[in-house]
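Risk register update: the risk of archive-format incompatibility is retired. Evidence:
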Amino acid sequence: MEDFTDKVVVVTGGTGNLGSSVVRAFQASGARLVVTDRNYGRAGEMFPELAGSMDHLLMDGIDVTEPEPMQRCVQSAADQFGRIDILVNTVGGYRQGAPVHETQVETWDFLLNLNARSVFVSSRAVIPVMLRSGGGRIVNIGSFAALAGRSGEGVYSAAKSAVLRLTESMAADYASQNIQVNAVLPAALVSDADLRADPTRGVTPEAVAQVVLFLCSEAGRIISGASIPAFGRRFSS
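Archived output:
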């Protein structure tokens, strides 16, 4: 198991399916956690052992698509811990689509904001803190859908493709300032029971969380600007 003792880790969307797995993986590895959630009270209910601890910070009511709440979250983390070492952007979502002429503009705005704007806003808030403390790691969650457009997934694919291009650009922007930026591209997130029934169905959130931890570990220090496939056996022959 990787040792992240005393590392300060911000996980956006930390109560989600993948986000909660990332939080628990870092918690088990000794990290100090900053967990954002848009809802009030849910983070404390999900992680009661973190609530009220001076070693962790649960931030309710944080819409990570909006600059002011995210800046407030980052300022609170910097005030409490003095630095941020790792940012994991797990906020995202899927909505089945339709051909372009049948797609509502609201669907475009919703998916681009949730999947791509959230990465931009969160990274924009955290990076200055990382620069002041000498570097850090950022891991963004993409999707295998970012690699090719498919019927009914045009807007979702576009949103996740934007995450990849942003990841690559940030990696280039901060290469000389000791900030490594990578993306993980999961297939569908499923349970262990689902995989036992059909090993090609997708990947578990726990398995994806371990890929995130590797990219943030000492062993992952030489990787930046990469998009790591986490497809499991979904596309195996």
